[in-house]
Amino acid sequence: MFFNQTKRLKVKEIMSKDFIVFDSDISLRRCVEHIALNNLKEVIVRHHEKLTGYIKFDDIIKISLSQSFSEKKLFDIRANKPFYLNVEDTVLMAKDIMRENQVDRVFVLDDEKLVGVLRTQDIVYKLYPKIQANEDLYELLWDNVHEGICIIDNKGMVCIWGRGSEKLYGIKKSEIIGKKLEEFFPTALLLDVLKSKEPVENIIHSPRKNTYVNISALPLIKNGKLIGVVSTERDVSEITNLSRELEFTKEKLDYLQVEVRKMNEDKFSFGNIVGKSKIMTHTIDRAYQVASTTSSVLISGESGTGKEVFARAIHQSSGREGAFVAINCSAIPESLFESEMFGYESGAFTGALSKGKIGKIEIANGGTLFLDEIGDMPLHMQAKLLRVLQERQLMRVGGDKSISLDVRVISATHRNLEDMVKSGTFREDLYYRLNVVNIKLPSLSDRIEDVPLFVKLFIEEFCRENHMKVPNISPEILNMLMNYSWPGNIRELKNMVEHLVVFSKNNEIQIDTLPEYINNKEDKTINIKNEKSLTDLIRKTEIKAIHDAMKECGNNKQQAAKLLDIPRSTLYYKIKFYDLNQYL
């Protein structure tokens, strides 16, 4: 008897009145805004007062990912052919039309006026509580509909598994019906709805790796009791993957825009590298000669000698169109190294961003990858980097697709990589791969005649940035600066110049503002017999110990703290306390 009643059920009783009609000349951008605002599933197209078709949400999203999106109108998208029913027609007639034409919705007319839309999920949600015991009607209603349909009981057992679900997941009805849904899909959204008893609609969900569905799920209530959950699902894997690729592209574009601004501001080029000394001009000529090739370059030199400046100049002179991407290998925690370098896919590990993340190497594709402090790269990452350089391909963490690469590698270190190779802390094969051309940068003490050039440059830069008048500096002070050994190299000199300008008076840099270890060279050699104050002795001893440790460790504070056998926080405090600006 119930079957006969359902056969007479009319579309007007369960149709949805949630629809919108647009003229075909509306801009696609405005159309997308309406979709987002009203949570629409399709847009019905009208041309000269006549309904011409409908466009699904999926199709509009695909077009919106294209570069010419802002220029398109609704009529630029091919509309789907609509199928119509009258308000007095039965639901079974609607189901037959859907099955025969492989569509998941029909449009309802009343006196030739559009009054509603009947979708697959409307049929499933509104009829199931009445027909769960009728197998014949189950076969008639949803076994052949376009969307995937799943129904579980209040214990999470699968009761209904439509053919759409079979196609979507490759699981036969005979394999899953009567079994716990959790065994097949541990993160299934239906299980959450079963617990919360709250419906969800149009959620993008990934029940399996690389599979994305647009799912709506509804708790089934009968006589006030929960009897199960029903869901309808549409495969949106292609659209989701396109959207994620768009996010990766946007992330790369943002990075490139920052780099372009940085290149324009800093104007990195060989012509802007400061240095007139013989050793420096020879080094610049050597770097300029290798810039136009694709050879890997290893830049060695003490900390603060300008290794990144040279790397950027090589990139800018190379003519490579891609980005210059710098990675400081000593600044990345070992646990994050692989994901930072190679990027990762959605859900690759706990704490990963839901949309995934593009890696630094991929951002550098077509450009230059600068690996600063390469000697601090963990051994396991050295092996993975070598493989990428050899195969010219990478795979994101959690991914299964190789990405082709065209990357020029420039690396830099203050360490002796040959000694590290001998001790087994750096891979020999990677060393030879990176060290095709070696450029050794001289320390500032080896090009002391360039100190006045740097002093002039740094004074002018600092005064321009801080809107200050350029102070005078006496030959006597310049001579003192040239007689200092500069263990911190150019970086130390720049910090020192800023210190002198800040404390200048009457537009003149004062000699008494020079730190004592520069103003009085004999302070570096401590004669205990001549010291009368224990405080002075401790002060000078600690300053000398910090200088010696920082020089030995290449200004690496973490290593210097270990060498001095003190916590790193204590070292930072003493550097600040003694006003050792070159190490700040």
Describe the 3D structure.
The protein has 584 residues and is α/β, with parallel strands linked by helices. The chain folds into four domains: 2-114, CBS-domain (Roll), CATH 3.10.580; 147-235, PAS domain (Beta-Lactamase), CATH 3.30.450.20; 240-440, 3-Layer(aba) Sandwich (Rossmann fold); 447-583, Helicase, Ruva Protein, domain 3 (Orthogonal Bundle). The chain has 26 helices and 20 strands. A five-stranded antiparallel sheet has the order 8-7-11-10-9, sandwiched between helices. A five-stranded parallel sheet has the order 13-16-19-12-20. Strands 1-2-3 form a three-stranded mixed sheet. Strand 2 (42-47) and strand 3 (50-56) form a beta hairpin. It is elongated. It starts with a helix and ends in a 7-residue tail after the last helix. The model is unreliable at 1-5, 131-137 and 521-532 (pLDDT under 50).
Topology:
Layout: H1 2-7, H2 11-14, E1 21-23, H3 28-38, E2 42-47, E3 50-56, H4 57-64, E4 84-86, H5 91-101, E5 105-110, E6 113-119, H6 120-131, H7 135-142, E7 148-153, E8 158-161, H8 163-169, H9 173-176, H10 181-184, H11 189-196, E9 200-208, E10 211-222, E11 225-235, H12 237-266, H13 278-291, E12 297-300, H14 307-318, E13 324-328, H15 337-342, E14 343-344, E15 357-358, H16 360-363, E16 368-372, H17 379-391, E17 393-395, E18 402-404, E19 408-413, H18 417-423, H19 428-434, E20 437-440, H20 451-465, H21 475-482, H22 489-502, H23 516-519, H24 534-552, H25 557-564, H26 568-577
Parallel strand pairs: 1-2, 4-5, 12-19, 12-20, 13-16, 16-19
Antiparallel strand pairs: 2-3, 5-6, 7-8, 7-11, 9-10, 10-11, 14-15, 17-18
Domain Sigma-54 factor interaction: 273-502
Protein name: Sigma-54-dependent transcriptional activator
GO biological process, one term: regulation of DNA-templated transcription
